[in-house]
Amino acid sequence: MTLLALAVTGRGLVDPHEPAVRADDEALLRGRAAFETLRIYAGRPFCLDAHLDRLEASAEVLALPRVERRRMEVLTGLVLPRAEQGDAVLRLVWTAGPQGGPPTGLALLSPVPDWIEDVRLRGARAVSLLGVRAAAPWLLPGVKSTSYAVNMAAEAEARRQGADDAVFVDADSTVLEGPTTNIWWRRERTLFTPSLDLGILAGVTRATVLELAGDCGYTVEEGHFGLTELLAADEAFTSAGVSFARSAT
Ligand SMILES: Cc1ncc(COP(=O)(O)O)c(C=O)c1O
């Protein structure tokens, strides 16, 4: 990945290609860190406050040191000029730190990958894969931790099967979410999306679509829906701060 800029708590702007996290940080050793990925449009972060709220909430569930929100805002302000009023991807990471040691906050700026626009234009293909319906708190429902190895493996499996993305379904074929997206589909003027009580991530983009749908002439139904309902839709799409695609069919 090409990196445009990196700012680190206690250090400010640093060379983005140099190491920034200690080798004994629990983020590395045990995946104990929370993160956010959001899009910069014309040099401005989209819904930064909502992403910082979710970062704080994830850190609390993961029992990380409390997120120092003001410092994360300062780090964001340091890297933003490197977007040069254009579009970019901002990653905010808050680690557990070494045992008993201070957490590390990171703001990392990178270019928007080219494939996103390509896939958006041609439409995405998705395959359904078994996912976890995370009802129990220790399965971390709705938490954005850096323990995303399973999500990344699901994306790799989807690609192995010739698709662009995966749709997680539970053992009863209830539609959950994508590895890094929320799932939506449309029948006539109604949009359907899985409800948050399924333990899925409360996407910031999902909340924005919910807010705007009415003004655009759509009603929205949130709930527990089977895969057959998704397959019978007029069209389907995913929502996420950075990647966003519509179905190929
Ligand atoms: C599992 C999962 N669901 C949904 C989303 C979409 O969330 P947002 O719209 O806040 O980017 C993400 C984004 O990273 C995700 O990782």
Give the secondary structure arrangement, pairings included.
Elements: E1 5-8, E2 12-14, H1 26-30, E3 33-41, E4 44-45, H2 48-61, H3 69-79, E5 88-95, E6 105-110, H4 114-122, E7 126-130, H5 149-160, E8 165-169, E9 182-187, E10 190-194, H6 204-213, E11 219-223, H7 227-231, E12 235-239
Parallel strand pairs: 7-8, 10-11
Antiparallel strand pairs: 1-2, 1-6, 3-4, 3-5, 5-6, 9-10, 9-12
Account of the 3D structure:
With 249 residues, the chain is an alpha+beta fold. Helices cover 27% and strands 25% of the residues. It has 7 helices and 12 strands. The protein has helices at 26-30, 48-61, 69-79, 114-122, 149-160, 204-213, 227-231; strands at 5-8, 12-14, 33-41, 44-45, 88-95, 105-110, 126-130, 165-169, 182-187, 190-194, 219-223, 235-239. The strands form 3 sheets. A 6-stranded antiparallel beta sheet has the order 2-1-6-5-3-4.
CA-based shape: globular
- The percent range for helix content is 25-40%
Largest sheet, strands/sense/barrel: 6 strands, antiparallel
Low-confidence stretches: none
Strand order of the largest sheet: 2-1-6-5-3-4
Total helix count? Answer: 7
Entry keywords:
12 strands; binds pyridoxal-5'-phosphate; globular; 249 residues; four-stranded mixed β-sheet; alpha+beta; six-stranded antiparallel β-sheet
Concise account of the structure shown:
With 249 residues, the protein is of the alpha+beta class. The protein has helices at 26-30, 48-61, 69-79, 114-122, 149-160, 204-213, 227-231, and strands at residues 5-8, 12-14, 33-41, 44-45, 88-95, 105-110, 126-130, 165-169, 182-187, 190-194, 219-223, 235-239.
